[in-house]
Write a structure and sequence with these properties.
With about 110 residues, the chain is mainly α. The protein has one domain. Helix content is about 70%, strand content about 0%. The chain contains 5 helices and no strands.
Length: about 110
């Protein structure tokens, strides 16, 4: 559910930002944001997309110091998704199998 929420939020944020006229640099950043959102939405390459989201979120927080907390939140969500993985209902789980960690008693 977390993966879907972040994916929809990123894709919507990127589309809304592209509706205005932006220079080429921010346009490429928004296209990358939409791409990461779509990858998270379908669950493809989730650890990689989460790591890129964490880097972009923290980078954006340092560039826009007026209100960095939204970017910090997105960066932390990206780091959490990179560590948690895609989940059972994702393309990654269909392609590579769902990983379970079992801790046995010794």
């Amino acid at each position: 559910m977390l993966r879907l929420t972040v994916g929809i939020g990123l894709a919507a944020q990127g589309v809304l930002a592209l509706r205005g006229t932006l220079p080429l640099g921010p346009v490429l950043l928004q296209v990358l944001t939409i791409g990461i959102g779509l990858l998270l939405l379908i669950g493809l390459w989730t650890p990689i997309a989460g790591a890129i989201l964490a880097i972009l979120g923290l980078w954006h927080a340092f560039l826009h110091a007026a209100n960095p907390w939204t970017s910090v939140l997105m960066g932390m969500l990206g780091a959490g998704l990179a560590l948690l993985g895609p989940g059972a209902w994702s393309v990654d789980a269909r392609l590579f199998g769902w990983k379970r960690i079992r801790i046995s008693d010794q």
